[in-house]
Amino acid sequence: MSTTVAELLRRGRALGLPGREVRALLSHRLEQGPTWLLAHGDATLEAKTFTTCAHALDRLAASEPLPYLLGEGDFAGLALTLSPATLIPRPDTEVLLEGALDRLPRGPCRILELGTGSGALALALKARRPDVTLLASDISVDALAVARANAARHGLPVEFWQSDWYRGLPADGFPVDAILSNPPYIAPEDPDLAPSVARYEPALALFAKDNGFAALQEILTGARTRLKPGGLLGLEHGYGQGPALAARLRAAGYDAVETLNDLADRPRATFARQPHG
After folding, report:
1. pLDDT confidence of residue 277
2. Where are the domains positioned within the chain?
């Protein structure tokens, strides 16, 4: 059997995989650039290397997400280490990022991110607003290890804590100027969830009871006693949850409730303010 680079590229095509993803995966495994692959199709690989690459292509064809196979992804221009312990950051979450940046106080302020995962949102905020103090938490020890590695990778100082939402956070850290979160908001057995997401991404970061509202409700309820007057609360949510979440925020006593749409023009992030006085 041929063990050349060209044979691996043919294998990717035979599996029906996008060429861009095949080249990205093989470039990563062979530690060569995509153009090298095309220019050195006749290069013969060691049998072990060939088998490893072929297996990786099979995993990709079985819907295992490319960022997990690469161990890396991108969010808001930051290259991030990823693992199956963390969600894969998506462009939709940049709506939460940009909405927060537009609404945060000018000058130094203190921000809490709940459920940080890979640290994507917290680190992107710190990169854009180096004057803010960021505290980020997650219940998962494995996810926090990834987040800390990403913070070190980019030299971005963020204080990380293991915590189940507000439980476990330092009591002397409040009140804060803003609380942000992309929490689990998918209802169990949601028929619209892509099988690859359900199969490979961490259930702890995906699913919530109460038709996907359990975590959102816990966060918005707890934020009332932890935000400064006029403080900002920003929550990512499912595109069908916007009106109901806005109603819950108003019922909890928040002001200035507004929902922003994602890149597909679907409701994706809702912001609210702690009342003054």
Report:
1. 64
2. 5-62, 83-273
